[in-house]
Write a structure and sequence with these properties.
Strand content: 15-25%
Distance between the termini: 98 Å
Strand order of the largest sheet: 1-2-4-3
Low-confidence stretches: none
Mean pLDDT: 88
Helix content: 55-70%
Structural class: alpha+beta
Radius of gyration: 38 Å
Number of helices: 4
Largest sheet: 4 strands, antiparallel
Shape: rod-shaped
Order of helices and strands: HHHEEHEE
Length: about 170
Amino acid sequence: MSDTSSITPPSRAAQAWAPLQQRWAALAAPERRALLIGAAVLGAYLLWAIALAPALRTLAKAPAQRQAQELQWQQMQALAREANSLRAVAPVAPDAAQAALKAATDRLGAQAKLNFQGERVLLVLQGVSADQLNAWLAEARAGARARVVEANLAQASPGLYNGSLTLAVGAPR
């Protein structure tokens, strides 16, 4: 008696491949070679398109990205040095800060009005140029250790600004 239980029926995968294997066996040698070459070309293209081309693009962009990040890092270091130097500067007495702000505002003339409100200062501007405003801010920062906490500026005409600045004087940094 023979044991037929050890014979397994063909799997679904084998059944699916059977017609393809028969078709392959029926092809002539030049047709098989042409299909193999086509499959190799298609495989090489897919390898290029999926694996190699994106990696090469990334490598090509890397030096420019690294340079941009290096520049950004240098800017951040400069800002950190500036922040540390500002922290190291001794605070200015309230009377000296007020005097420095008044002197800076006097240089703007009738275009600016200064109102002291405790540790806050309100500067109201009317027709001040960007250069004048920049110079005033630099002087306020250096002479009074004041920093802008709120700005409300609008361009009145090309190069001239109206609005207000609120500054903190003598407050902790």
